[in-house]
Amino acid sequence: MRRWNGWGDESNSMDLPASAGEFLQNVIGKGVVLADASLASVIASVPKSRAPIHKLINTNEEIRVRHAKGQSLPDYLATRSGHFGLFPDGVCYPENNQDIKDILLLAKEYNLDLIPYGGGTSVAGHINIKQSERAVITVDMSHMNRLISLDTDSNIATFGAGTPGPMVEAQLRAKGYTLGHFPQSFELSTIGGWVASRSSGQQSLRYGRIEQMFAGGSFETFEGTLDLPTFPASSAGPDIREIILGSEGRFGIITEVKVRVTKLAEQEKFSVIFFPDWQMATKFCKAAAQNKISLSMLRVSNAVETQTQLKLAGHEKSISYLEKYLSLRNCKSQKCMLTFGITGSKQQTKATQTQIKPFIKQYQGISTGSMLGNRWAQNRFKFPYLRDALWQQGYVVDTLETATDWHNVDNLLNKVETSLKQGIENKNVHVFTHLSHVYGQGCSLYTTYVFSCEKDYKSTLACWKTLKHEASSTIINNGGTISHQHGVGKDHAPYLEVEKGILGIKLLENICQHFDPNKQLNPGTLLND
């Protein structure tokens, strides 16, 4: 059973080692444990539905609770406190394209707002409800979850938009293929949601971001069906696929997704290198990207993240031996851990290993083999469970991400981290960053921040609002994108104009007006209207 007030399946969890409590108190201070609300009490607070009675709409109170929030920190605090504020008036579970067409017609007839819902994993407020005089229906795509076809001549697979990551991979791997899209939210997020939010996976160096994978599909709008044919390339005007990518439910509902898939690789290996400092580690990443070395993944943690990961890993004796060895090799207090992946045929992986060795030596890297890399691969989708583990000790954790050109990486990273560390007077905020996607031009920066709860939920949320605003303002005013992989949603919409410009925002508003003149599709998302 999926958790109603946290991440993932109730049978899964992430335990912190015994030493974690002491470490957290040393860097942050004592945690403050807040009381959780019960599901029963939240269900009892759900107001009467305003939705019309219809076979497509389920108005059950618990189902409405489970579709009211995503996975942002404000959402987490809402579910833990029981103070949801607003709930959808009903939930629709379409089984096919015709059901989507019918719910759109119903929305027109009864003047309803519709919010498309994939895996409910948004950390930017995509699926949250804005105050509306209209009834709000969440359109849960989870029943449209199968591999519809696989063209093995062109390596194009067609999926229902509600297919979650594990089912995408399982259905493809049964036929010898992979999509290779592995975002942190892989366990729950869906292929339609990846397209709608321009998602990026952990192995995008090999497989590309979702925009490289998205070949076409079907899109239902108030004006009818928009079919996107698959072409290997086209110069026939602007690419309509780019309008659908990142549209976040504002223009219509994605029903079928056609993606470019790849045959399963013969080999895959993840390894860890330690560098003496951040400068050496990032120079290595830039050199690997600009020399087009065929890695599938590169992720480098700054010194604070490296220290935090080692402290929270447990296995104190093994970590102690590792640190002593690294210290003897001149990797001491500023050491940075880099995890990389090599994926491909035996010949390809051997050639890549040969290519990468001179760069490791040039930037004073120390290889530690594949043990740590394999451990990372085994636990790669467990990080979201850390939020519950920290919460039980009185701490909250959140993340934000951006991307920028290489010349601006250190400047932006330092300013973002400073904005979080100094965002709230007399409060310790533990901040660390990793570089998780690299390009020849630049890279993404993914920052995590942890702080103790305040005396109550309201004060804790106020802390987050201050930190989020300070960091977001710093990003857009210092050459970063407001989002590299999480999308815009409602949380980032106020900051989008700096990035897109007045003309760019006007263009997006005009597209919304074309597809949705009455603003019934996910209003308030993407655009700050």
TrEMBL record:
Q: Which InterPro entries match?
A: Alkyl-DHAP_Synthase, FAD-bd_oxidored_4_C, FAD-bd_PCMH, FAD-bd_PCMH-like_sf, FAD-bd_PCMH_sub2, FAD-linked_Oxase-like_C, Oxid_FAD_bind_N, Vanillyl_alc_oxidase_C-sub2
Catalytic residues (positions): 446 (proton donor/acceptor)
Q: Which Pfam families match?
A: FAD-oxidase_C, FAD_binding_4
The record's SUPFAM superfamilies line, in alphabetical order, gives: FAD-binding/transporter-associated domain-like, FAD-linked oxidases, C-terminal domain
**Mind telling me which PROSITE patterns this protein's record contains?**
FAD_PCMH
GO BP annotations listed: lipid biosynthetic process
Write one Gene Ontology MF term: FAD binding
Task: Supply the name of the protein.
Answer: Alkyldihydroxyacetonephosphate synthase
Give the taxonomic lineage as stored in the record.
Answer: Bacteria, Pseudomonadati, Pseudomonadota, Gammaproteobacteria, Alteromonadales
